[in-house]
Amino acid sequence: MAILEVRNIEKHFGSTQVLKDVSFSLEEGNALAIIGSSGSGKTTLLRCLNFLETPNQGSIIVKGETLFDASLPTKQREQDLRKKRLHFGMVFQSFNLFPQYTALENVTLSAQLLAKEREDYKQNKKEILTEIEQKGKALLDQMGLADRMTHYPHQLSGGQQQRVAIARALALSPDILCFDEPTSALDPELTGEVLKVIRGLAEQKTTMIIVTHEMAFARDVADQIIFMDDGLIVEQGDPKQVIDNPKEERTKQFLTRYTEG
């Protein structure tokens, strides 16, 4: 059974239709790479999955539970929206760290805020916060940042900031980890740092959706690739099908432009 099912998602901004009948599924432990030109709808799709945007049509199902159905009344769709977001961990292209917090504080903040809603929080506050801090430290250690936990974002390189952002996204143990062009703001050396971390997560069978322009990386890491153009899924399949042997002319043209660029 697929961990994620996206069915017939459409998204409009005014008179502009950005997503057009987008449907796909994702198996647990697999990595899905989404490729395509700028403006093809990739980021909007991720934002819809994270409920940062509301689709006009379609449904989103995670682990058999319907998290979103556009046919339902608005109030019912927005019920427990924050809990629905917890199924997804989001890593943005521009890091989006809080500048006033250290690396460790950025990673643990969400878990600390959610912990306050627990019935046993007052009774077990010290133990709960200690557990959250230990997990945050373990994640930063996993990201190779054991010696940067007390540093603020301005004291970190772009690659280090993005690794903090990945640790933060993992902190609440999401079902699916989403990356929106995680290396687009980085130079080649720092790009390599971040891609190495994502490769490691893929080896650990972390379920991921990765919007990327790194074709070689997508070929190596992804179990499935989707090519989008003009809001549509034009072609999807495994890396050999989509990147090495594309069937659709639009896919071929995109890959040719990318290679020539």
Description:
The model has no long low-confidence stretch (mean pLDDT 93). The protein is an alpha/beta fold and 261 residues long. It has helices at residues 42-49, 74-78, 81-85, 103-115, 125-142, 158-170, 188-203, 215-221, 239-244, 249-260; strands at 4-13, 16-26, 31-35, 57-62, 65-69, 88-91, 176-180, 208-211, 224-229, 232-237. The protein contains 10 helices and 10 strands. The strands form 2 sheets. A 6-stranded mixed beta sheet has the order 6-7-8-3-9-10, with helices on both faces. It has a 4-stranded antiparallel beta sheet with strand order 2-1-4-5, covered by helices on one side. The relative contact order is 0.17. Helix 4 runs parallel beside helix 6 (158-170), helix 5 packs across helix 6 and helix 6 (158-170) packs parallel to helix 7 (188-203). Helices cover 39% and strands 24% of the residues.
Topology:
Blueprint: E1 4-13, E2 16-26, E3 31-35, H1 42-49, E4 57-62, E5 65-69, H2 74-78, H3 81-85, E6 88-91, H4 103-115, H5 125-142, H6 158-170, E7 176-180, H7 188-203, E8 208-211, H8 215-221, E9 224-229, E10 232-237, H9 239-244, H10 249-260
Parallel strand pairs: 3-8, 3-9, 6-7, 7-8
Antiparallel strand pairs: 1-2, 1-4, 4-5, 9-10
Helix pairs in contact: 4-5, 4-6, 5-6, 6-7
